[in-house]
Amino acid sequence: MVSPVLCGLPPEELAALIDFLPRFRAAQIFKWIAAGASSFGEMKNLPLALREALTGRFLLRSSAVQVRYEDPDGTVKLGIGLADGAKIEAVLLAGGGRRTACLSTQAGCPAGCVFCKTGSLGFTRNLTSAEIVEQFLFLREAASHGAPSAAEGRAAIAKGRAGHAVDNIVIMGMGEPLLNLAEVRRALAVITCKQGMDFSKRRITLSTCGISAGIIDLADKGPAVRLALSLTTADEALRRRLMPIAKAHPLNEVKEALACFQRSGGGRITLEIVLLGGLNTRSEDVAALADFARGLDTVVNLIPWNPVEGLKADDGRPLREPSPGEAAAFAGRLKAAGLKVTRRFRKGRGVMGACGQLGVLPAE
Ligand code: SAH
Ligand code: SF4
Q1: Can you tell me which atom of ligand 1 is nearest the CA of 228?
Q2: 303 in ligand 1 pocket by Cβ < 6 Å?
Q3: What is the biggest distance separating any 2 CA atoms in the chain, rounded to whole angstroms?
Q4: Which of 84, 199, 299, 301 could serve as 163's disulfide partner, Cβ 3.0–4.6 Å?
Q5: 21 neighbors 40 (Cβ within 8 angstroms)
Q6: For the chain, percent helix, then strand, then coil, each to nearest 5?
Q7: Which residues are CB-contacts of 96 (< 8 A; sequence separation ≥ 6)?
């Protein structure tokens, strides 16, 4: 039998699993996991016999970092091996004095966006809550330059600084989070729990390709994280060509879901536009985008396409980056149409750790 993995369990589930122990033990173990303990042996306030008994019955983590690439710009990309042999990636982006952990939610992705490496891999499976929490723990360790001891982690929790090595979390790695919402929710319950990692929900952004029912579910039941929509273009016909999953999620439904999210207090939504040279930077795209954003509180985030060998548009033409002039002109026309616009820094290209490049090893 496979041993249960504890690091992905919210406090009440952990307590239920080890209900043969007094309840305060579950709280102690939860705190140690949050502090970064990777073995029961580190849990010094548990009796030795209990530490040994738990070691035989439960696992604390299920995956392991297999490779680590570091870009001179400070980006760290981790290649992580899962227990069943599947592989995923997680990225730490450093810039402007802030460190952002980018987490994956699926091995591969079923959405099939033509511009995205992960999409070209196809779908393997959903990640478990533990596999998502572990990415955060690994990146937190990478951010604090080597693993701090669990005792140091405990001290950080006591001071309310457990998550401080990472400033923001973006759920923008491999996979579509709203197609794995149950496990994403459990993972976020662990990561944001006040008694443990205590990461602020407002510093977490979940990015979706536009699964309307998932957006409404998130609006209804939380958690109250920030939302980003990978819009790519608001021209419905082009969007369906670039993002095949969009055929099942018409833009009027997506917009209604975003309005619902905003009515429930969700705050400003980021509309992500990956800029594909000569494809989605036309005046039609500007007009459609302005129309889509009307009535919503949004900021448009422009991301020049990060090149990935072999990716092609649906008509077989190779994709290309926009020229700097094309990107600047598009940004200017969006602003002139009254939209708020930001441009994303290109981070992590040297380790193929930038948006859309997950699934490619630097050596390839
Ligand atoms: N599946 C979710 C989250 C992961 S993708 C989603 O699609 O939102 C995160 C972001 O990377 C998306 O906004 C997507 O548009 C962008 N992206 C994908 N491939 C890219 C590439 N090659 N270059 C730049 N951005 C890319
Ligand atoms: Fe999946 Fe997002 Fe990549 Fe599209 S952009 S294939 S939804 S990971």
Answers
A1: 8
A2: yes
A3: 70
A4: 199
A5: no
A6: 40, 20, 45
A7: none
Predicted pLDDT of residue 157: 63
Q: Which residues pair with 170 in a beta bridge?
A: 102, 205
The whole-chain average pLDDT of the chain stands at: 93
H helices, E strands: number in the chain? 12, 12
Residue 149 DSSP label: P
Q: Which two tokens stand for residue 45?
A: 């306030």
Are 324 and 86 a contacting pair, CB within 8 Å? no
Mind listing the domains of the chain with CATH numbers? 11-57 (no CATH), 64-351 (3.20.20.70)
Half-sphere exposure of 281 (CA within 13 A, CB side): 22
How confident is the model at residue 364, as a pLDDT? Answer: 43
Q: Rounded distance, CA 167 to CA 163, Å? A: 8
Question: What is the identity of the amino acid at 199?
Answer: F
Dihedral (Cα; 219, 222, 228, 229), 10-degree rounding: -50
What is the atom index within ligand 2 of the atom nearest the CA of 207? 2
Pairwise CA distance, residues 360 & 357, whole Å? 6
Q: In the structure encoding, which two tokens stand for residue 339, read together?
A: 């939209």
Tens-digit pLDDT profile for residues 178-229: 999 999 999 999 999 999 999 999 999 999 999 999 999 999 999 999 999 9
Q: For residue 165, give both structure tokens.
A: 């090595």
Q: Evaluate whether 169 touches 100 at the Cβ level (below 8 Å).
A: yes
Instruction: Give yes or no for a contact between 270 and 299, defined as CB atoms under 8 angstroms apart.
Output: yes
5 neighbors 128 (Cβ within 8 angstroms): yes
What type of residue sits at position 272? E
Cα 307 to middle of ligand 1, angstroms: 12
Confidence of residue 162 (pLDDT cuts 50, 70, 90): low
pLDDT at 146: 53
Q: Is residue 122 helix, strand or coil?
A: coil
Q: Is the CB of 89 under 6 A from ligand 1?
A: no
Q: Compare 347 and 305 and report the one with higher pLDDT.
A: 305
